[in-house]
Amino acid sequence: MSEGFVSRGFRGRRRQTDDRLPPGQYLVEGFPVLSAGPTPRTPLDEWDFSISGEVDEPKRWTWEDFQALPSEEITRDIHCVTKWSKLGTAWEGVSIDTLLEGVETAAEHVLAFCDGGYTTNLPLEDVTGGRAWIAYAHDGKPLEPEHGGPARLLVPHLYFWKSAKWVRGLQLTTYDIPGFWESLGYHNYGDPWREQRYWGD
Amino acid sequence: MDERRLDGNAVGGLLGEVFTFEVTMAEAACDRCGTVAHVGETMAYVTEIGTVVRCARCDNALIRIAQNPRGYFLDLRGVSYLRF
Ligand SMILES: [Zn+2]
Asked: Is residue A180 part of a domain?
């Protein structure tokens, strides 16, 4: 392939010295929205969340069940592959550890699935150990639909496309299934500190 | 030996004819709901990560295109056929 023909990456902005910023990232104050489809608006009485796939027994929560689960307040920096980062974002949600309590599985991978058809894949160990949540509030208010409400996956240690908006469940698998962007040249793991934006990074 | 089984290069001419069509004028059939519409009549969502062309009736992702430093990626799995 001739260089220059396909060379488009995300444009860099000014150089940053803040050590909370991974390489190539710049700070934003607002909260940019990136949507590759219409915003789903699933009524709460039709919403549910499920754990399925390679599990001894699938689990399912209605919105009401979900609200009754122990929740946590989470403050983390987030990093988008399009190069913006936002520091100290505040969330409330349920830890994936809580959802997987008592689940017996041989799975090593997770595919998050969402209203609107979006998917993203992660190693199971990256959504456990207090590193991932299903978040339903941001800045003390119910999560707005444009930011993934009623609930989104929150995996702040990976690029933000992994924090799937409008998430409805996790499919546990023994094999890895590349998700919506991971199958189109974006990195399978997506560690912002190793700048894993694209295949081969 | 099956004489109909050929090296992919043997269909280079045919594929060359196929991939010259005017895409927006082609009809795309949605693999989810079966709706057939000209590509130009679908809904496109253009983002910094990639572009998603969706069925105007059911929002199924018909065509997904990413243009990034690893190349152009064209995913047509949401389309059952294109007619032109
Ligand atoms: Zn459709």
From this structure: yes
